[in-house]
Specification:
The chain is built from six helices and seven strands. The chain has about 220 residues and is an alpha/beta fold. Strands 3-2-1-4-5-6-7 form a seven-stranded parallel sheet, with helices on both faces.
């Protein structure tokens, strides 16, 4: 049995990755705040659904403990939970800014911390969802700043895991047509399945191959 843990798994990239991971033979452990959607997906795929607020350390500890109690191992951990917002710092309410930083940055860091021992044990794979916006700053975008932090976190984690056999991959999507956006993109955007394939490409490499970054844009995206 190989176990694939995903945060932010109830929709979008997380749900698409869960389906592709299950098709590849992984047992999914799915985490999100949306418990109803999550349970339906777990029932469909034959895995576990665990309600988890990634900003709470006790929730992340419980998530990992539940996975280990059920299956005894974690082979892949995908820190995918996150959300965006408008461009322009004055357009953000302060509480919204705080929640974004806690979810996108601290949540990813907590997932790394919570899964490290299990990933070392399995010589597993850590993945984090960053963004094109984590490679070039967007005007007035706190979201972009949080994804720059995740990009740095991926390399920091890779160095921390060095010589343990654990691989680390940053997934950096461009425009993706998912519930992340309030309205559909005007261009032909990527689909969640496109990013899930990129995730599985990295995961399914031989153990001596560590794909550290996958930057994926729609063909029509200019920047």
């Amino acid at each position: 049995m190989r176990v694939f843990l995903i945060t932010g798994a109830s929709s979008g990239i997380g749900a698409a990755t869960a389906r592709q991971a299950a098709a590849a033979g992984y047992t999914p452990v799915l985490a999100a705040r949306s418990e109803d959607k999550l349970q339906g997906l777990a029932d469909e795929l034959g895995g576990l659904a665990v309600r988890c607020d990634v900003t709470l350390w006790e929730d992340q500890e419980a998530l990992v403990r539940t996975a280990l109690d059920a299956y005894g191992r974690i082979d892949v951990a995908f820190a995918n939970a996150g959300f965006g917002g408008p461009r322009g710092f004055e357009k953000y309410e302060p509480d919204f800014m705080r929640e974004m930083v806690l979810t996108n940055v601290l949540g990813a860091a907590y997932t790394i911390r919570a899964t490290m021992a299990a990933l070392r044990e399995s010589r597993g794979h850590l993945l984090l969802t960053s963004s094109v916006a984590g490679r070039r700053a967007l005007e007035g975008s706190l979201y972009s700043a949080t994804k720059f932090a995740v990009t740095a976190m991926g390399e920091a984690a890779r160095l921390d895991f060095n010589e343990t056999g654990v691989r680390t991959t940053l997934i950096e999507p461009g425009m993706v047509d998912t519930p992340f956006f309030d309205s559909p993109p005007e261009m032909e955007a990527l689909r969640a399945d496109d990013i899930a394939r990129a995730v599985m490409f990295a995961v399914q490499q031989p153990p001596h191959v560590d794909v550290n970054e996958v930057l994926v844009r729609p063909t029509a995206q200019p920047t």
